[in-house]
Amino acid sequence: MPTPEPAAVATELRTAMGKLTRRVKHEDRIPHGQISVLGTLDRDGAMTTSDLAADQRVRPQSMARAVGLLMDAGLVVRRAHPTDGRKTLVELSAAGRAALDAERGRRAGWLAQAIEAELTGEEREALARSAALMERLAAR
Predict the structure, then answer these.
(1) Burial class (CB in 10 A: 0-12, 13-18, 19+), 41
(2) Does residue 47 sit in helix, strand or coil?
(3) Which of 4, 23, 60, 125 is 20 to 30 A from 114, alpha carbon to alpha carbon?
(4) Average pLDDT over the chain, rounded to whole?
(5) What letters, b where the CB count within 10 A reaches 16 and e where it falls short, cover 53-92?
(6) Are strands 88-92 and 76-80 parallel, antiparallel or unpaired?
(7) Which helix (DSSP H) or strand (DSSP E) does residue 87 occupy?
(8) How far, in whole angstroms, is CA 47 from its chain's centroid?
(9) Residues 26-55: what's their mean pLDDT?
(10) What is the average per-residue pLDDT within 37-61?
(11) Is 53:37 a contact under the CB 8 Å cutoff?
């Protein structure tokens, strides 16, 4: 079997990853934009609303609305900035961390069930090897 062209593999991989990502996100109970904010706060720690907006590539006004909705739901809290009294930081609340963990668990649970139901043992081994390769590509 000839080695596939990198461009063709890239196209197929991008398409398949997009479909899989959309399907896994279908398990979410919290809107994608809000989950993205919670995930960023989990990974990077407390941030200003402006920094969150820049990270998410949205307007500060849009991020202020999203943060407001998350605050109303008790998923984030505000606290004073330690070095700049004019700013406040947004951080995950305990409820926000629990909600994020639940969302991640639902996604992983669905994917694990799909892998078990759809793939043979040999295919699961190939998928595990592929995951390591995708990590390597993502780190480039």
Answers:
(1) buried
(2) strand
(3) 4
(4) 94
(5) bebeebeeeebbebbebbeeeebbbeeeeeeeeeebbbbb
(6) antiparallel
(7) none
(8) 17
(9) 94
(10) 96
(11) no
Classify burial at 96, counting beta carbons within 10 Å of its beta carbon; exposed 0-12, middle 13-18, buried 19 or more: buried
- CA distance linking residue 35 with residue 26, whole number of Å: 12
Q: Please write the tens of the pLDDT for every residue from 81-108.
A: 999 889 999 999 999 999 999 999 999 9
33 HSE (CA, 13 A, CB side)? 15
Alpha helix ranges (H) inside the chain: 6-25, 32-44, 49-56, 60-72, 94-118, 121-138
pTM over 0.70: yes
Whether residue 70 contacts residue 76, with contact meaning beta carbons closer than 8 Å, is answered with yes
Tell me, rounded to whole angstroms, the distance of Cα 103 from its chain centroid.
Answer: 10
Position 27, amino acid: E
DSSP lists the bridge partners of residue 80 as 88
Query: How does 17-28 read in b/e, with b if 16+ C-beta sit within 10 Å?
Result: eeeeeeeeeeee
